[in-house]
Amino acid sequence: MSQRPFTLTPMDRRRFLGAGAAVGAGLLLTACGAATDAATPAAATGSAAPVADAGGFPRTIATKLGQITIPKRPERVVTVGFPTGTADAALACGVVPVGMPKAAGHPGEIEPWVAAKLQGRTPTLLEANTVDVEQILALKPDLILAGMHRGIPDDFAKLSPIAPVISYEGEAPFQDTWQQQTTLIGRALGAEDKAAAAIKEVEDRFAKIRADHPGWQGKTFTFTQGATLAQIPTVTDPNEASARMFSSFGFELSPKVRELGAKREVSAERLDLIDADLVIVFFPSPDAQKTFEGNAVFSKIPAVKEGRYVTVDGSLAFPLIAPGVLNTSWAIDQILPKIEKAMA
């Protein structure tokens, strides 16, 4: 069973997502508790191959919520739930959703990695992390992608009469790796080759980064949320999405925070526990960063004193905590120069 994931406080979420995020309160409470093995998704999930000839329809897709039959190649796809992840996968497969969740805080409420793949089209933007049945029905979808919607176990019965619903393979929403979700959606869209190529492109980038930076192999890291000194969450599970992200660069989660286990927090007096070869801290606001960097314990952490310290803001924290096949490449572009500078 996965541990309680790295979280943001309600106030942090409002700062993070902007005014439109009220309906998304609790979004990251489930966004990074993945405990599956990214290297062996089929073995971990017991997924079945589609019941059809390669590329043919109808086909049946095995998901945690049942065997889902898709009668014809989908043309009108709607994604619901989290603003990223499922839309990423559809776009990587060459399918522009007719409806997808809005991403508050981004220009036009569309994330930059999504905007780059829209082919000049304008999807209907839905409220994130909720289901408006009438609005979705009006879009006349022939497939609904809901693997990144934490409410889909309850909303599945509402959506299934509209169109086939593809959810997830793991035990709960957000537990599939981005590779699993992309592969699953590729099968549902009849675009297995495009899905595999998109995954390979990202994994090849990570492989090149590891080859170019052999000195990072085995170095330790920590990833902490610097919102308030009263309660300081830190990643303690190497299977969380954000931990797997940094492991893909060659780093490994510090044993000192792994030993915290389910506690998942450090006190202001024990901030020294987050020291590592590389320390990453998400600050939801400049004021939070100023408060942390003024703390006597934090300022004396060796990694902080020596510059092996990387800060991330809300726009970058989202892809790190809930990666998809498109936003992972975007996150690499943003954070790689920061890591290179810190580890120089």
Describe the structure.
- With 344 residues, the protein is of the alpha/beta class.
- It has 2 domains: 10-33 and 213-343, Rossmann fold (3-Layer(aba) Sandwich), CATH 3.40.50.1980; 41-198, Rossmann fold (3-Layer(aba) Sandwich), CATH 3.40.50.
- 36% of the residues lie in helices and 13% in strands.
- The strands form 5 sheets. It has a 4-stranded parallel β-sheet. The chain has a 3-stranded parallel β-sheet with strand order 3-6-7. A two-stranded antiparallel ribbon has the order 1-2.
- Strand 1 (59-63) and strand 2 (66-70) form a beta hairpin.
Kindly summarize this structure in a few lines:
With 344 residues, the chain is an alpha/beta fold.
Descriptive keywords:
344 residues, alpha/beta, Rossmann fold, 2 domains, four-stranded parallel beta sheet, three-stranded parallel beta sheet, 15 helices, 13 strands, elongated
At the fold tier of CATH, the topology name of the largest domain is Rossmann fold
Largest sheet: 4 strands, parallel
* Class based on secondary structure composition and strand pairing: alpha/beta
Large-scale geometry? elongated
Specify the CATH class of the largest domain. Alpha Beta
**What is the CATH-assigned architecture of the largest domain?**
3-Layer(aba) Sandwich
Tally of separate helices? 15
The fraction of residues assigned to DSSP E strands is 5-15%
Order of helical and strand elements: HHEEEHEHEHEHEHHEEHEHEEHHHEHH
E-strand count:
13
Oligomer, anyone? single chain
